[in-house]
Design brief:
Elements: E1 14-17, E2 26-33, E3 38-41, E4 46-51, E5 63-68, E6 71-72, E7 76-80, E8 83-85, E9 87-97, E10 103-113
Antiparallel strand pairs: 1-2, 1-7, 2-3, 3-6, 4-5, 7-8, 9-10
């Protein structure tokens, strides 16, 4: 069952694997599967699939296909300045404008690195 709340890892983030057979490997996040709390990281958890040749579809010829499989989000940490860090959130006040030209203040959520306090 998926946990409720926000997922701090996003597509395109650089992450480091902190547990499992690929521990220590860094890579870029290709996809986030939020409902399963999993991410697909480039070059991590590579699996081989044996496929049959098919007449229809783009697969065409069969063979052994190597691709990345999802890993749990708790097994990766976000990299900032080449160091792994936990992710926190901060609310910032911003000024927005309406189509008629008037302005108002609103809040936006910003990811921050727990180790340095910098905005990600």
């Amino acid at each position: 069952m998926a946990r409720k709340g926000t997922i701090s890892i996003r597509k395109g983030d650089q992450v480091k694997v902190i547990a499992g057979k690929d521990k220590g490997v860094t890579g870029s996040v290709i996809e986030v599967i939020a409902d399963q709390n999993r991410v697909i990281v480039e070059g991590v958890n590579r699996v081989k699939r044996h496929t049959k040749p098919s007449q229809a579809g783009g697969a065409g010829s069969g063979g052994i296909i190597t691709s990345e499989a999802p890993i749990h989000i708790s097994n990766v940490m976000l990299l900032t300045d080449k160091t792994p860090t936990r992710v926190g959130y901060r609310r910032d006040d911003v000024t927005k404008s309406r189509p008629d030209g008037s302005t108002y203040t609103a809040q936006r959520s910003v990811r921050i690195a727990k180790k340095t306090g910098k905005e990600i």
